[in-house]
Amino acid sequence: MFKKILIANRGEIACRVIKTARRMGIATVAVYSDADRNAMHVEMADEAVHIGPPPANQSYLMADRIIEACKQTGAQGVHPGYGFLSERASFCEALEKEGIIFIGPKVKAIEAMGDKITSKKIAAEAGVSTVPGHMGLIDDEAHAAKIASEIGYPVMIKASAGGGGKGMRIAWNDAEAREGFARSKSEAASSFGDDRIFIEKFVEEPRHIEIQLIADSHGNAIYLGERECSIQRRNQKVVEEAPSPFLDEATRKAMGEQSVALAKAVDYQSAGTVEFIVDKHRNFYFLEMNTRLQVEHPVTELITGVDLVEQMIRVAAGEALSFSQDDVTLTGWAVESRLYAEDPYRGFLPSIGRLTRYRPPREGAEGDITIRNDTGVSEGSEISMFYDPMIAKLCTHAPTRLEAVDAMADALDRFEVEGIGHNLPFLSALMQHPRWREGRLSTGFIAEEYPDGFGPVPPNAQVVERFAIAALLISHILGERNALISGARFSQTERRTHEEKVVRVAGHEIHGRIEDAGDGYRIKLDGRQAMQVGTDWMPGDKIALIAVDGDTQAIKVEPAQAGWRLRQLGVDVRVQVLSPRIAELARLMPEKKIADTSNLLLCPMPGLIVSIAVNEGDEVQEGQTLAIVEAMKMENVLKAERKGMVSRIPVKAGDSLAVDEVIMEFAK
């Protein structure tokens, strides 16, 4: 067994590997760039080595610096995590020459499965079901359109060396095939240093379901069930679960056995994942094999009890698997939500900055519910423009799917993140979506259910009532505290605690009364029967746990002008508690108008201007490309929303812009 290993990665996955290595009694070495000098993975590791400036291609992608760090510290093996060098065969070869063990598959398997064109040919030869497509090289945009029309639209245009949604486009006609080919080729070149592209048939109403493998060097290979990864945005997974709510046992077995056959065909040794597209009739087609640990591996660990990082380390050390296929049991249900630094109200565009508050829900088991949070940040950490915008992976495990989903909803409401834009509101709203709760999924779920993007969630009657109760409680508790202040206008005994209040929430006005009731409070809304209410909230708390007739729920609380901002289940509203007379006067106040920016093209995210496609004085048409902005290694095409005349362009290609900076102005 290894005495010391180096983790050639950063963030949450580096922290994840360190935790298992520590439990196994293995010393760890972290590597870090200038941007990660104070990162969590650096603090957690036994040793840390600086490897370069912030850009990944000058630090985490520098194989020679990783190898030098191994020599410097005496690390016997390297765990690559995911991304960066995790699927680069040349890195594996370089380690091998230096006598350092790569904690992952062998070069042959990485090369065979790392190229999507080659992998599909091998999969077909191994008896794995594959999607129709063109596996040869594509000359140019015209060639791409010709191939696409021959296959039949819609088609998927993909980078051969791609991953993480980069270098991937769906085309529904020749024009989209030509543009998709150009954009995929450009993204592939910048992200992977390999601009080869292939095209295959796009399966409509598809589910993305993957099989987790583990194989050793003694000829043993088993599958550990499946993961449903259909909730995606721009081909990037957002929520995963295990098992899939769609598969039956026969399909699971067939997919698992084909995955094992593929692994054996390339002498696979380590943890790996075979991804499939599954249609509505449970026909499944090979998509790709990821020769590394997947981001979403925790849900498999939660339902099987197998530590995949530990198994990778043991296999790399030459040990045989200590369990067989018959020993694998899927217990309960697990859900993972990826918390990203992105603004769901602005088309999920990346957000960067410092985490001024970061308080995840408490981890561990309580009754039948288990909460796990894999992260690489803490309060005060900075989300950098140089790396993936993931903040954390929040997981819940429960006996049934709906129990796991409800546990996730509650955990998300208890997760506090401030200082940057983040997708917590979207994740919270998703947990309440009927189609998600029923398991009627496809990879087009987000695009289909949120065609105009994600916006503020309107509260239903139940949430309005809950927020009214919360506001009355908060107002009452603050009033009681203020009355105890020396020199206050009214003493505690003089305050009229039974006076009626008007709660203004989401366009509703609710009349309520609150009074102390020994171990809690009694609240009446609109003259109805009193409810018994309890809370642990104290002034200054960011989360209020409020129990109404025994049902406890978490609500985020934040002071706002003349009231409070309350958030729960993706709902985000301002609430006021007023006297009847003040409420009457408030109805007469005019609404503040929002500034008109309809004639401006604003930068939707912090990013780099790749190109400007028009000039001052040009007349543009609806849907015409105006500019391309790169952020987080993704190229974002900005198009005209309507016909207009460009009057001013204050920026140029190569400029770095902050969010909402003006890219161009149109004549009114």
The global form is globular
Low-confidence stretches: none
Helix-and-strand structural type? alpha+beta
> Terminal Cα separation, in Å?
71 Å
Q: In DSSP terms, counting alpha (H) and pi (I) runs of 4 or more, how many helices? A: 17
Q: Beta fraction of the residues?
A: 25-35%
What is the count of β-strands? 40
Mean pLDDT: 92
Radius of gyration: 27 Å
Main β-sheet, in a few words?
Answer: 9 strands, antiparallel
Give, in spatial order, the strands making up the sheet with the most strands: 14-13-10-11-12-15-23-21-20
Q: Work out the helicity level.
A: 25-40%
What would you say this structure looks like, in words?
- The protein is of the alpha+beta class and 668 residues long.
- It contains 17 helices and 40 strands.
- It has a 9-stranded antiparallel β-sheet, sandwiched between helices.
- Helix 1 (11-23) links the parallel strand 1 and strand 2 (27-33).
- The chain is globular, with a radius of gyration of 27 Å.
- 48% of the residues are buried.
- The mean pLDDT is 92.
Brief overview, please?
This protein is α+β, with helices and mostly antiparallel strands.
Give me the secondary-structure topology.
Elements: E1 4-7, H1 11-23, E2 27-33, H2 40-44, E3 47-52, H3 63-73, E4 77-79, H4 89-97, E5 101-102, H5 107-114, H6 116-125, E6 133-134, H7 141-151, E7 155-163, E8 166-171, H8 174-192, E9 197-201, E10 207-215, E11 221-233, E12 236-242, H9 249-265, E13 270-278, E14 284-290, H10 297-304, H11 308-316, E15 333-340, E16 342-343, E17 349-350, E18 353-354, E19 357-359, E20 364-366, E21 369-375, E22 382-383, E23 390-398, H12 401-413, E24 416-418, H13 424-430, H14 434-438, H15 445-449, H16 461-483, E25 501-505, E26 508-516, E27 521-525, E28 531-535, E29 543-548, E30 551-560, E31 563-568, E32 571-578, H17 580-586, E33 600-602, E34 607-612, E35 619-620, E36 625-631, E37 634-639, E38 644-648, E39 656-657, E40 662-666
Parallel strand pairs: 1-2, 1-4, 2-3, 4-5
Antiparallel strand pairs: 6-9, 7-8, 7-9, 10-11, 10-13, 11-12, 12-15, 13-14, 15-23, 16-17, 18-22, 19-24, 20-21, 21-23, 25-26, 25-32, 26-27, 27-28, 28-29, 29-30, 30-31, 31-32, 33-40, 34-36, 34-39, 35-38, 36-37, 38-40
